[in-house]
Structure formats: C-alpha cells, structure tokens
Specification:
By secondary structure, this protein is mainly β. About 5% of the residues lie in helices and about 45% in strands. The chain starts with a strand and ends with a strand.
C-alpha cells in the first residue's frame, strides 16, 4: 500500500506537485554586467564596491531596466546604497515610463527612523506619480546612506515591503493601485545597486486578493457621480463662471475607488498643465435641512448646490495654502455647510488640477433624512 502525505499519494503525484511548485518559484539573479541591463548612455556604469560587482546609477534621472524579464508576482530583493539627495526607487510591472508600480526611498530621511515619509509606494498612471492621492502608502524606515537590503513581496493585488528588517514589514500595501499586471523591473535615482534577485510565482504568505477598503461600510461617502466627458485647459485664467456646464454638456458615470476617491487621473490621463472638469450628483432630502460635507480635493475646488456657490478652496502643494497632509488629498482637506431643500438637490463640483494626481473625496457628516445615489 502506498503511503500518503497531506492527502497526496507518494510517488508520481507527489513528484508532479514538487516539480510544479519548483516551476512556479523560478529565481533569477541578475548579473551586475552591462549585457543584463538596458539604460541610456551616461545613466549607468558597472563597477565594484568593496570588491563586489555593482550597478552605479549616475544621476537622479537615471534609469536602468533588467533585460528580458517580465514580472507579475513573487519577490524582488536587492541591496541599495543611496547617493541621491531626494529619491531612489524600484519600478515593477513596468509597461513604459508612463505605467508601472513604484516603491522608493526618500533619501533625505536616511538615518532618521522616525521620519514619516521615509519610504513610499505609488502607482505611475499616464506618467503621473500618484503620491499626492495616496498619503497612507508611506511610512518610517531605518535605512542609511550605506548599504541597505530591501525585499518587495508582491501578490496580484497586495505588497509588503521589508527594509533591512526581514521579519517585520516596513510598509503594508493592501491594494496595488496601478493599471499594469506585469512588466519589467527598473531602478532609478542616483544609487549603487547589487544582489538583485527575483523569484517569480505566488507571493509568500500573501493573498492575491486586496484587503478590504475600510470605508466600504460607511454610507456617508458620495460614491456615484457623473463627470464631464472632456476637460478644459484653463490657460492663465484661474476660474470663469462661463465654464459651468450648460444643458449641452455630455456626462459620463464615474464611481469612487477605495476610500471614496474619484480618481480623475485614471480617467483622463495626466499632464502638468492646469485644467478643470466638473462632477455632479443628486442628494435627495426628506425636508429642508443643512448638512456638513467634508471634502478631499486635488487641487482646487468650486462647490455649487442648486446652482449657488457655497464653497471654494485650493490645496496647492508647497505653498502656504496647502492643506494637511502637506498638500495631499485627505477627507480632512476642507468642510462646509450645504443647504438642502426638500426633494432633489443638484451638487456640482468644479475640480481643477495643476500637477500630479487629480481627485475628489466627499462625505457627509451624517445621512439622516437624506438619500444619496447608490
């Protein structure tokens, strides 16, 4: 009689299982030689550090991409000695310079284990780094200007980042937010890189499904809107009432992503020229009332209720008017009272974008006596 282990018959079936598992866990150790990397002239050189071969990225805008590799899930590990004054990162699932997932060190925080912005994850969508839409995907980390060991554990929809401490994750990403599912791996920013190892296959101890959105159960978020099919470049004009949509406007439905966020960068793409678009929804009130609405916005907002302007504000990064947290989107960026009449109320929002991510979050303090579009 054949012996069994965990319900698998020892012999042909067990051997098949072992071989299949081994095939899933394909490991690639990337040589630190020029023929294994793609880069532009002047961006990189291959040298040694303490007699070990290294890739040296020579400038802040330098990019070096692993050749002949298509990565989806698994583990990316590497050693990095940051030289850059600001950023040094690893892009993965990279389809082009415009679309990838991205993890990076904010190198100015090297040596400060309490700096809240030491490391960050952000997707690159339509060439835009969405760092300002995802402030929750950053954290503290103990790293130095010397050598640091980093491991990225990537499932289909989640990621864990380990920096020097391989037992405790430095950064937990409950949902990868990029548009890509596979692609190349690349490093950027002035730095030395060595010991790049890639294991492809199912991620270790990490579900392929995203973790729950903590706002999912909260009915106060306004999640269903209509948005203009197109947007307008504003030029040197900050705002003009003539831009308010009339009855010829073409609208499309749009639904909030995680944390109740309407992500306009994902819809419209990106550039760094100021533009504006409009969103509208309906709040139905059982009787005349007022409600407090909390707003997260990137970058400028113009709020109309039943065609009356009730609120405007700006969240301009690196200016005195930027909102907490440091010009990035948050439900605490702003708030105002909105007057509602019995019946249907049109809520119209103009949202202008100057650079980086473009998005809106809206939540009532309570929904007693009112009904949102579900």
């Amino acid at each position: 009689m054949k012996r069994t282990f965990s319900g698998i018959v020892l012999g042909g079936l067990l051997l098949t299982s072992i071989l299949a598992h081994a095939q899933q866990k394909k490991e690639t150790k990337v040589p630190m030689t020029a023929d294994s990397w793609q880069y532009d002239a002047g961006d990189a050189e291959f040298t040694t550090d303490n007699s070990q071969p290294v890739l040296k990225l020579l400038r802040s805008k330098a990019i070096a991409t692993v050749k002949n590799l298509d990565f989806s899930t698994g583990t990316i590990s590497y050693d990095i000695k940051p030289i850059d004054s600001f950023f040094a990162g690893c892009a993965f699932r990279k389809q082009s310079k415009d679309e990838s997932e991205y993890f990076y060190l904010r190198t100015e925080n090297a040596g400060d284990p309490d700096a809240s912005t030491a490391v960050q994850y952000a997707p690159i969508i339509s060439s835009i780094n969405l760092w300002d839409l995802l402030p929750e995907y950053q954290g503290a980390a103990s790293f130095t200007r010397g050598w640091n060991h980093i491991k990225l554990v990537v499932s289909k929809k989640q990621m864990r980042v380990f920096v020097n401490d391989m037992n405790n994750p430095t950064l937990i990403i409950p949902r990868l937010e990029g548009n890509t599912t596979h692609g190349s791996i690349a490093f950027d920013g002035q730095a030395l890189i060595r010991n790049v190892a890639i294991i492809q296959g199912p991620a270790e101890n990490l579900s392929d499904e995203p973790e729950a959105d903590i706002t999912y159960n909260d009915p106060r978020y306004i999640r269903n809107w209509e948005v203009l099919k197109d947007f307008r470049y504003t030029g040197s004009t900050d705002f003009d009432k003539a831009w308010i949509p009339d009855n010829t406007a073409v609208w499309e439905k749009i639904t909030a992503e995680r944390k109740g966020m309407i992500n306009l960068t994902r819809k419209y793409g990106g550039n760094f020229t100021r533009k504006i678009t409009w969103l509208k929804t309906t709040i139905t009130a059982e009787k005349d009332c007022i409600k407090n609405i909390r707003l997260g916005f990137s970058d400028d907002i113009y709020l109309y209720v039943n065609k009356q302007l009730v609120y405007l504000d700006k969240n301009t990064f690196f200016t005195p008017i930027m909102k907490v947290p440091r010009g990035r989107i948050s439900i605490d960026n702003g708030s105002t009272i909105i007057p509602l009449k019995a019946g249907a109320n049109e809520v119209l929002i103009g949202l202008a974008q100057n650079f980086y991510g473009w998005a809106l979050i809206a939540r009532l303090d309570d929904t007693e006596g009112v009904h949102l579009i579900r």
